[in-house]
Design a protein that fits this description.
Strand content: 15-25%
Largest sheet: 7 strands, mixed
Shape: globular
Oligomer: single chain
Number of strands: 25
Number of helices: 21
Distance between the termini: 43 Å
Strand order of the largest sheet: 1-17-16-18-19-20-21
Low-confidence stretches: 1-119
Mean pLDDT: 80
Helix content: 25-40%
Structural class: alpha/beta
Radius of gyration: 28 Å
């Protein structure tokens, strides 16, 4: 009954009976910023978190039952239990386990939670690389733990068949072969750190295995290392130390600069950037920040001035980089940017190596356009002197990716990943999950075409505005609006809205948290219409920063709408007040034009001159002689030069190129 009640509550939270009025998304999508517990209490909180009684969340009980029903039968088989807590395995693998098999204890006093684990033996967690003792102890409280380090690939493939979860760092490759060798038993992969390059997430998803990581425990460590690099450079600490080791005494040679009253630009005002800002203020520095997605109220509360990228480049003495590596930020700091900096400017990078053009930085240093750099991360790691022009320079301080390398951070990562693994093992949604859809396989299959549709509609909408909008309205048509579970659809809307600004994987588990962090306020309306579970869907954003005004509706919202056609493909059917019929695949060009003869021919000719092939074309208009909207699908991505040449056609009022994933 609890599951049924959860389903009913979930339906009401996500739309209720709503057949005609907009409704706010569930409370989890609000604009409430998560509060981190004090550092002194964090370890205790993490160690005891898995024993707390946790109230079930509305709408998630059916998903938990689905996960339970879909769990591999191998999970229910009896686990081999080691007889000693510290036995040796093949002379090098340490084994730690509980002394006897016991049923996994329910972590909350609810019938749903107890039922979820009823009849299951204690799971086995394989720890493949060194993990902090606090994490190991937490795992031992609820699982059999086998610490097997330095395994060969053959050893890993053998051991994985006896494991329900595996925890790795960066040295162990969790490949498709590993998931195959597990024969369906492996349910969770835990990455003790942030990056998941060594885990085949696609293969994990195919086998129903949840991948979790530990993204927050090293925040303070990374910020502290950034400040350490800042201080080390400003006072020539590495160079002076090397001089002393060589038996020299060169006080006059290593005169540094003071940090007080200097301006530091925090480029990327997320978790690490915010911590750097706090510490820089403590050093008496003036702090500005550049981040197009940072909330203004957060910066104001911290006494930090939010500025544009160009203004930060012109004003700062020091730059602390904290943006993710995305297509937008790749080589963001290039020759043009360095030329616009002060000659005393210093770059500190503890984020991602690829955000700096290494050769451009080397040239800027050679030309004395900036003063120096302090780098902890590199485009290719480890870097070599032959490949990296920044190694061996007296005005560049280098460290081997030590941002998270503190005792406290490593212990925090261990506890964080252990908590995430235990959470996923009991079938609950883990906040750091990289995949793990919590929707029944049957519903997932039925909703996937619509999920693809709303994802692409959101991608189109974000390219029709100059900045990310925080107010988002979604309108669904459905034959059964009261029963429509929109979590998967809403997750894909969030993905389409923010994926071009982050490296984070966005899925059904973490989309609400990401929406909350970005300040997105999503409202939904469900309307009874037609015979499909999901019919026409529209997404609307405020039109204050519209780059294509023709997409505005009568209420001055950028509105895009679409449907899934009979072949299962997403189609754009509404653009503002215009009806169109456009396939949402690959590249397309949108035009607002004067409704007159010859426009289509002129556009086709111009595209042909650039070797661009048209694969479909559609024109929508409201009345003859008024402005019309034309949409053209093309086989190649359009460059800025092509778009500029199209704008030269007199009858065209607005032109915008939209890039979407291709089949």
């Amino acid at each position: 009954n609890r599951g049924k009640r959860g389903a009913k509550d979930g339906a009401q939270a996500h739309g209720g009976s709503g057949t005609s009025s907009r409704q706010a998304s569930d409370q989890r999508g609000g604009n409430t910023e998560a509060r981190e517990p004090p550092a002194s209490n964090r370890g205790k909180r993490m160690k005891t978190a898995v024993r707390r009684s946790v109230a079930p969340k509305a709408g998630f009980a059916p998903a938990a039952k689905a996960v339970r029903a879909a769990a591999p039968k191998a999970v229910q088989a009896k686990r081999p239990i080691a007889c000693s807590s510290r036995a040796r395995f093949n002379g090098k693998h340490e084994v730690a386990s509980r002394p006897a098999p016991v049923a996994l204890r329910a972590l909350a006093d609810s019938p749903a939670d107890s039922d979820l684990r009823a009849g299951l033996e204690v799971p086995t967690v394989l720890v493949a690389e060194k993990l902090g003792e606090a994490g190991i102890e937490l795992l031992k409280q609820h699982a059999n733990v086998e610490c097997c380090y330095d395994m060969s690939e053959a050893d890993l493939l053998e051991k994985i068949a006896e494991s329900d979860a595996i925890i790795v760092r960066s040295g162990t490759q969790v490949t498709k072969e590993v998931f195959t060798a597990s024969k369906g038993r492996l349910r969770v992969v835990g990455r003790a750190g942030v990056g998941i390059d060594n885990v085949d997430v696609h293969a994990a998803t195919e086998t129903g295995c949840v991948v979790v990581n530990a993204p927050t425990a090293n925040t303070v460590a990374a910020a502290e290392h950034g400040i350490a690099m800042l201080c080390a450079f400003s006072r020539n600490v590495p160079q002076a130390d090397a001089s002393m080791r060589a038996g020299k005494w060169e006080r006059s040679k290593y005169v540094g600069v003071s940090l007080v009253d200097k301006t530091i630009a925090v480029m990327g005002f997320g978790k690490v950037g915010s911590e750097v800002a706090r510490r820089a203020q403590g050093l008496g520095m003036k702090v500005i920040a550049s981040d197009p997605y940072a909330p203004q109220d957060k910066a104001k509360a911290m006494g930090v001035e939010l500025v544009s990228f160009d203004e930060a480049v012109a004003r700062a003495d020091f730059f602390s980089l904290h943006m993710p590596l995305t297509p937008t930020t790749d080589k963001m700091f290039n020759a043009d940017v360095f030329k616009r900096m002060k000659k005393n400017a210093v770059i500190i990078n503890v984020a991602r190596g690829g955000v700096i053009d290494d050769q451009a930085l080397a040239d800027a240093l050679d030309n004395e356009e900036i003063a120096g750099a302090a780098l902890d991360v590199f485009t290719k790691e480890p870097p070599t002197k032959e490949e990296n022009p920044l190694i061996g320079r007296p005005n560049v301080v280098l460290t081997p990716h030590l941002g998270a390398s503190t005792v406290e951070a490593q212990e925090g990562v261990a506890v964080e990943v252990a908590e995430a693994v235990l959470t996923a093992l009991r079938g609950d949604p883990a906040p750091s999950a990289i995949n793990a859809p919590m929707v029944t396989p049957e519903l997932m299959k039925e909703l996937m075409p619509s999920a693809d549709l709303v994802h692409k509609l959101a991608l189109v909408a974000t390219q029709l505005v100059a900045q990310n909008e925080q107010q988002v309205q979604i309108h669904y048509r459905s034959c059964t609006p009261d029963d429509l579970d929109t979590r998967l659809l809403r997750a894909n809307v969030v993905k389409g809205l923010v994926e071009h600004t982050t490296q984070a994987t966005i899925n059904l588990v973490n989309y609400d948290l990401i929406a909350e962090q970005r300040g997105l306020k999503i409202s939904e309306m469900k309307e009874r219409h037609g015979e499909k579970l999901v019919g026409k869907t529209t997404i609307s954003l405020p039109a204050a920063a519209a780059t294509f005004p023709a997409a505005c509706d009568a209420d001055h919202f950028i509105t895009v709408g679409g449907k899934v056609n009979s072949q299962g493909r997403p189609i754009l059917t509404t653009l503002g007040q215009y009806a169109v019929d456009v396939s949402l695949e690959g590249s397309l060009v949108l035009f607002r034009q004067k409704d007159q003869p010859g426009v289509i021919g002129a556009v086709g000719t111009k595209l042909a001159e650039h070797g661009i092939n048209v694969n479909y074309m559609n024109v929508g208009r409201q009345e003859q002689g008024q402005d019309a909207v034309m949409a053209i699908g093309v086989d190649q991505d359009l460059t800025n030069d092509v778009v500029a040449s199209l704008k030269e056609i007199p009858a065209l009022i607005d032109v915008i190129a939209i890039n979407l994933p291709r089949l």
